[in-house]
Amino acid sequence: MLINSAVYDDGRMVAEPGLDGVSEALEARQTGFVWIALRDPTDDELHLLQHELNLPALAVEDARKGHQRPKVEEYGDMLFAAMHLLEGGPDGELQVGEVHVFVGARFIVSVRHRSDQGFLGVRGRAEREPDLLRQGPGFVFYALMDAVVDRYFPLMDAIEAELEQLEETMFRPHQDRQAVVQRLFGLKQRLATLRHAVTPLLEVSAKLHGGRVPVVCKALQDYFRDVYDHLLRIQASIDAARETIIAATQVNLTLVTIDESLVTKRLAAWAAIFAASTALAGIWGMNFEKMPELKWEFGYPMALGAIVLVSSALYWRFKHLKWL
Question: TM spans, by residue (predicted)?
Answer without folding.
Answer: 267-286, 298-318
